[in-house]
Amino acid sequence: MAETEAEYTALPLATRAGGVVHLRNLLMLSPEGLTSARVILDAFGNGDADFAAMLPQMRDLLLLISDGPKALAKEMQDWPLGMYVRVVEAWQGATQSGEAQDSAS
Fold first, then answer.
1. Among 5, 64, 83, 105, which is least packed by CB within 10 angstroms?
2. Closest CA relative to residue 6, chosen from 103, 101, 105
3. Cα distances (Å, whole numbers) of residue 72 to 3, 12, 42
4. Integer Cα distance of 56 and 44 in angstroms
5. Whole-number Cα distances in Å, 78 to 56, 59, 83, 88
6. 3-state secondary structure of 73
């Protein structure tokens, strides 16, 4: 499992409470979690997405991929829209390389 976790890396996110939550790669989610995440991500697929309207879905996605959803929920309580977008984009950038390696094999 450690080798798989190293290959499909998570994005560490420091919280203001002093902890760290990890935003996991999609390939490290349960089958049910992966299905739920894909539904949310499909809604983002439209280049004309209205981020303000999608804030609840971004929140749900981050809680779903987090290894510490309670700590993350507390962290996100006062986040502005831009913080959600920034974290989702950082997570996508950090975890996409593992998915690309998997699909190439």
1. 105
2. 101
3. 26, 11, 23
4. 12
5. 13, 12, 10, 16
6. helix
Domains of the chain, by residue range, sit at 2-99
β-bridge pairing 20-23 and 11-14:
antiparallel
Q: How far apart are the first and last CA of the chain?
A: 19
Q: Is the pTM of this model over 0.90?
A: no
pLDDT digits (tens, 9 = 90+) for 50-63: 888 889 999 999 99
The 10s digit of each residue's pLDDT in 23-54 is 999 999 999 999 999 998 888 776 666 888 88
- Can you give the length of the chain in residues? 105
18: left (phi over 0), alpha (psi -120 to 50) or beta: left
User: Is there a contact between 60 and 73 (Cβ–Cβ < 8 Å)?
Assistant: no
Distances (CA, A) of 23 to 6, 19, 74: 13, 13, 15
